[in-house]
Structure formats: structure tokens, C-alpha cells
Description:
The chain is α/β, with parallel strands linked by helices. The chain has helices at about 5-10, 35-50, 60-80, 95-105, 125-135, 150-160, 180-190, 210-215, 240-245, 280-295, 295-315, 340-350, 365-370, 385-404; strands spanning about 15-20, 20, 25, 85-90, 115, 140, 165-170, 195-200, 215-220, 230-235, 255, 265, 320-325, 330-335, 355, 355-360, 375-380. It folds into 2 domains: about 5-25 and about 295-404, Alpha-Beta Complex (Aspartate Aminotransferase, domain 1); about 50-290, Type I PLP-dependent aspartate aminotransferase-like (Major domain) (Aspartate Aminotransferase, domain 2). Helix 4 (about 95-105) runs parallel beside helix 5 and helix 11 runs parallel beside helix 14 (about 385-404). Pyridoxal-5'-phosphate binds next to helix 4.
Amino acid sequence: MINVDKIREDFPILKETVHGKPLVYFDNAATSQTPQIVIDTIVDYYISYNANIHRGVHTLSQIATDKYEQARIKIQNHFNAKEAYEIILTSGTTHSINIVAAGFASLINKDDEIIVSALEHHSNIVPWQMLCEKTGAILKVIPMNEDGSLEMELYHNLLNENTKLVFCNHVSNALGTLNPIKEIIDAAHKVNAAVLIDGAQATPHIKPDVQALDVDFYVASAHKLCGPTGVGLLYGKQEWLEKLPPYQGGGEMIETVSFKKTTYAGLPHKFEAGTPNICGGIAFGTAIEYMNSIGFNNIVSYENELLEYGTQELLKIKGLKIYGATKEKTAVISFNVNEIHPYDIGSILDKLGIAVRTGHHCAQPIMDFYKIPGTIRASFSFYNTKEEIDVLVNGVKRAVQMLS
Ligand SMILES: *Cc1c(COP(=O)(O)O)cnc(C)c1O
């Protein structure tokens, strides 16, 4: 069970006001808020042991290195990776995807096929298009249905012996659709294709088990699960990480350097060139501990309550249409009212202290599918309340009155 009043005490920002109104933060799918314990971890790093890692014999460097590597193990345990060195700490989902996409340039040939889903975030479309341009590989798309689910039959038809890679998000950020990734992974493996799952939107709600999923790559960002911005993870199976060439050259990622030949360091350092976001990595570990202390089962069942309540109350508004209505979805409601531009409603909501996202949510192909410029997206977290949903519903009603 969630004690939401107690949880809200953990998040100092929830006491803020915006335009003189109490903040109602419903933009959790863009970034989550930060609990005090994570803020304390960041402050503590700069106050007591700020030092570079992996290279100093001095005490502070050793403390920082230990904490950083402990964070890697916390992340490993959370995702149930077999080895800690299969967890590469990156600057976030986008960075992680680019490491894999750039690496595959040397493993892919002309006329090989790459499959992506129609529900992707731009960060999961553009790197593959760049890879195809570079290699002459062909990009294929799993189409979507009206309810925001993927056309799985067509996916199975797309797979063949030329398929080398499949990319799909675990949960769609624009609609909240929870995709059948186990089925996607198993089918891809039958034709020996590798699978990368974008977990940026799933990880705030679900604790993925990368070994049970048998996924080849899994990526996520700390800032969507109560951690800081600028840090994230690339999980890769050891065999794949060893096959991929390094993404960037620099310090940290080498074993020996001479002008004749440089040999690369082993995992995970091969993919971690330069000084990383040390404090961010350590705070990522704290964020994961915090989320687990609340418990993902509790988080999901409470968020589902909010989703059900929000859906029911919003649908009472005349002319309101919700996009993405699959049974399996996370606590995201993407909607429009009549022909009113989402931006206009969003601006009025902001004046009322309500933070929602408006626009195409970095998923323009989905908006093209529905033939709309964008949506208003309210995304809930375990620190939100039904009372806040009431504030949103009244705000939308007021905005619609003003705009029609
Ligand atoms: C947020 C998000 C991304 C991008 O994450 P960054 O932290 O901006 O790199 C990618 N995919 C999905 C599904 C997302 O929700």
C-alpha cells in the first residue's frame, strides 16, 4: 500500500507554487521529481568526497570510485544483469541507443534489415535511419493499431533471415502502451536478430528482469525514475558488448596507448571514455534504492488507480478524446478536446499551476497516424493524488469554456 501523504513529504518540490497556485505535476513521463534522499546524495558527493574515479591512489578518489562501482552493482541487481560489467553507465537513453547504433555500423551490411516500431520516440528512430544511410541497410516499421497497440501479426511477417536488429520501446511515451516485448524478443531470436528495448518509459513503473526477458540490450534514463538528469544505463549481454566497437575514444577506455596501436580496456570501461557523471551515477543508485523501498508492485497498483480515476473523470468532459486505449498501459493519458489546439489548453493549465506536456512528445509518426498536431499528455506518478486529478479535470473544463 502507498501512503501518499508520507511519500509527498519526500519530494520538496511538491510544496512549490506556480503562478500562485499549488504545483500539480503531471509531466512525469518527461522527467520525474527528485526525492530528498537523492538530493542529499548529490550534495554529499560535492561536500565530502568530490574526486575523479578509477585513477587516484588518494583517499577521496578511492571513496568516489567505490561509491560509483557500488551504484553499478545496485543497478545490476535491480535489472538482474548477470555481471556488473554488463551495465554501462551513459548520459541517458539517447546516448545508450547511439552507442549501439554506431557500433552496429560495423556489424551490418547492405540489404540487411532493421525493424523498428511505429510507436518509437525520435531518439529511437533517428539513430537507425543514420545507421541505414551509412550501411545501406533497410528500415522496416511495425505498424500500429487505432488503440495504440502494435500490429503483432505484421511484425511476425516482417521477420526473416535478413533481419539483424529489432528496436522497440517497452512502454510508449506518447500513449503509455505496454508492448509485448517478450514476444518481440523471442520471435527476433528465432531469426538470430538482436533486440534493443528502450525502457525509458517503462522503468518508472516496472522492474525489468533482463535475464528472464533474454533481451540483448536494454536502455533507460535515471531522470525518469527519481534520479538526476544526465545519467542512464546501457545493459548489454556480454557477448554483444564484446562484439561492438567502442563509441568514443579517450581516457578511461584504454588499456595501453602508443602511436602505433592502442588496446581497449575491458568492459564496462571500453564504453565509458572520459570522466563520467560520477555524482549522477551514484545518485542513480540511490534513486533505484528509493523506488525499491516503495516497491514496484505498490507503485503500479496505485498508479493504475490514478489512471482509472483520471480516465473516468476526464471522459466526462464533452468532446474529450483519449488516444491509446490498450488494456495494458501505464499511467499516461494523452487527449484532445474537440478541435482545440493542445497548446492552448496546456497554456491555460499552466496558469492554474498544472504541469502537463503538449505537443507531439517526440513521437511525430504517432501523431501523423491519428492526423493530429499533438495531444495534451497527463502522466502520473506514485506521488500524485486523486485530488490533483480533480484539479486537472476542473482546469480542462475551464480552459475549454474559455476557448470555445
Ligand atoms: C524520454 C525517452 C527517451 C529519451 O530519453 P533521454 O533521457 O532524453 O535520453 C527515449 N525513449 C523514450 C520512450 C522516452 O520516454
